[in-house]
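This section describes the prediction task in plain terms. A model, or a person checking by hand, is given the sequence of a single protein chain and must write out its three-dimensional structure as a string of tokens. No templates, partner chains or ligands are provided. The sample shown here is typical of the held-out split.
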Amino acid sequence: MRTFARLPIVLATAVAALASHGTAFAQDKVLNVYSARHYQTDEAMYDTFTKTTGIKINRVDADDAGIVARLKAEGAASPADVILLVDAARMAGADAQGLFQPIKSAKLDAAIPAHLRADATKDGVSWTGFSTRARVVVYDPLRVKAADVATYEQLADPKLKGLVCTRSGSHPYNLSLFATVVERLGDAKGEAWLKGVVDNMARAPKGGDTDQIKAVASGECGIGLTNTYYLARLIKSTKPEDRAVVERVKVIFPNQGTTGTHVNIAGAAVAKHAKNRDNAVAFMEYLASPFAQDYFANGNNEFAAANGVKIDNPALKAMGGDKFKAEQIPLGVVAKNLTKVQQMLDRVGYK
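The expected answer:
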């Protein structure tokens, strides 16, 4: 498997060179994948696709921002066929910049629930989720009652003042959650909720999701927000310090009695200027297969997105991830609400 991972962002001369080789890319039985996923288990997933189809995969590995920047720099000369990004907010942001093209696939329509994909148009669907993760609440049982954090709405309750910790409000993981909360509550109530969360902060937002879990365990915070796979990594860890963190905190899947816990996705899209479009669609359909789902989801301690596919992950089961009610709000609303939510965050001072 050839990778372009060490190549810098394409400069003007390189773009011109790629343009001159565009025909060669199209003629080869290849697929050029730009991926923000960096999990060793993905190698078997890619290898099986190649063995099954004869289509060789060339891969660029970078973070989401690097991939988007590269696509924009390369423009129509880009060799990218498939884009793998993490989080609906990132998928929606790249889509809004015109970096994807819609596709129509009966196999994907049957395999992946509509609420885990971009909104369908007459031209098809521009991006699809292939694994899911839940955004859950971790709390200190010595300071907080489970009943007081049973819903996302309760995070704004004044009784929790000085207890809440999160990463930046503008981080895509939070933006996706906030976009769906605003969709449910409406603009006025949604913004009031965000203001209430800010008022309840134990300290200014900082760090990542693992930092929030550890802050709760250390007593710095009483409540934190995290994606399930961060907690699963700690549960699987054999390090004494990680074991101590897991034993110190409890987890809640919010809104089980109402709308369900917010879930987000890692997903894929066909690049706007894909030279190997048929191969790209075939790969997208492959990602929805039970075999690929196991690698795609389990590689990052996530849940499968495809209908009827169950992932056997002891860490997810340990936190109750095998039986929770998931929110059904279409993730397409994330795209619709992103700008509005960011403006709300600015107004309420959510850093």
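For orientation: Confidence is low (pLDDT under 50) at residues 1-27.
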